[in-house]
Amino acid sequence: MRHSFSRLEHLPNEMLAEIFEYISTQTLFQPFYNLNYRLNTVIQSLNSHYLSLTTTDCDQIERYNFIAPYISILLIEGRAQLNLNYFTNIRRLILIQSTDEFVEQLERVHLPYLEHLVINLGNRRENDCMPYYWNRIFSYDLPYLNICCMYNINLTWTCSSWRQMLSLHILKIGDIDILVYELILSSCPN
């Protein structure tokens, strides 16, 4: 028996989900979200909503706040600014040459599902906010953090206590102060 579908609404959910996987998150939400309950359910069931942000346009960033709770992978490059508090389901966060103000936001925002963190400060050598963020990584509860990569970042010893990160399996960092090695090895047994 041959099926012919003349309308998008007649496609089964599995086929819609497969089609939607090939459409960027921004493009997907604009025409399809809030059309009906079924499409909302299919869109929300997708696991890999991705947002790559390089803009500083405030109007465009405001539109991203609408889809923020559905984003699981967030790439921010350059001077783009947004409020991470809206992004409640981030699994993977990649920051490339972000501003100090944006990196400092990581100190305050709660990212309970974060699994993969990459921060690349580019060619900058001044990174005053990073020692504090290191302390947060190893003292704050990030129970799912598996991979942490900090490129072009110097890590110097600060007098603080780090807790064990049993979930952390891969840790890549720039220059390390010799006193930090013992802390890292005791904090990352896996």
Instruction: From the alpha carbons, calculate the radius of gyration and give it in angstroms.
Output: 20 Å
Report helical residue fraction.
25-40%
Any low-confidence stretches, pLDDT <50, length ≥5?
A: none
| Alpha plus pi helix count | 7
**What's the count of strands?**
6
Q: Mean pLDDT, as a whole number?
A: 78
Shape: elongated
- The overall number of domains is 1
Q: Main sheet?
A: 6 strands, parallel
Elements, N to C (H/E)? HHHEHEEHEHEEH
Beta-strand share of residues = 5-15%
* Major sheet strand order: 1-2-3-4-5-6
Distance between the termini: 54 Å
Structure notes:
The protein is α/β, with parallel strands linked by helices. The protein has one domain. Helices cover 32% and strands 15% of the residues. The protein is built from seven helices and six strands; from the N terminus they run H-H-H-E-H-E-E-H-E-H-E-E-H. Strands 1-2-3-4-5-6 form a six-stranded parallel beta sheet, with no helix packed on it. Strand 1, helix 4 and strand 2 form a beta-alpha-beta unit. The longest helix has 10 residues. The protein is elongated, with a radius of gyration of 20 Å. The relative contact order is 0.09. The mean pLDDT is 78.
